[in-house]
Specification:
Order of helices and strands: HHHHEE
Radius of gyration: 32 Å
Distance between the termini: 22 Å
Strand content: 5-15%
Number of strands: 2
Largest sheet: 2 strands, antiparallel
Number of helices: 4
Length: about 160
């Protein structure tokens, strides 16, 4: 009588990524179409570079396929800037990691990771710590709620 009854164990379905046949056929087909369009767009973005490279090596490519004024020098100027961009990204990452390590080493642990005690819980719930400790010790607790759903009082 004092033991809880066995609960209904809900059968968990596997993830869609593990069993794509569980997804709706329309969703599967739209995913294939969107993926194919994304690959085509990715390939299309390489066209200006390939045509600029072809012109650099002396191939006479039609003007229709290469309408803008992009040249290989434009791409090379982007490549010259790339080490600086990568360097700044790595520097930002290292500064963030160093900041986290120093914060833990100095001894000022982040408040997010400290355990929640009775005092902190009582402060967060705007209650008296002794009253909250008494509530926690009670086996049966009758709770009264206010108009906004907050706990206003509890009695054993």
């Amino acid at each position: 009588m004092d033991e809880s009854r066995p609960r209904h164990q809900a059968r968990r379905l596997p993830l869609i990524i593990e069993r794509p046949d569980l997804a709706h056929p329309l969703r599967r087909m739209s995913a294939v179409v969107i993926t194919a369009l994304a690959w085509l767009l990715w390939l299309a973005m390489w066209v200006p570079f390939l045509f600029a490279l072809g012109r650099h090596f002396g191939y006479d490519l039609p003007e229709i396929l290469f309408p803008s004024q992009i040249s290989l020098a434009t791409f090379l100027s982007l490549v010259q800037v790339m080490p600086y961009v990568v360097g700044v990204a790595v520097l930002v990452f290292l500064v963030g990691a160093l900041r986290e390590r120093l914060k833990a080493r100095i001894g000022t642990a982040d408040d997010r990771w400290r355990p929640v005690g009775i005092d902190r819980l009582a402060t967060g719930a705007a209650l008296d710590p002794e009253k909250l400790a008494a509530w926690q010790k009670a086996q049966i607790l009758y709770v009264e709620h206010g108009p906004r759903g907050r706990v206003t009082n509890a009695e054993e």
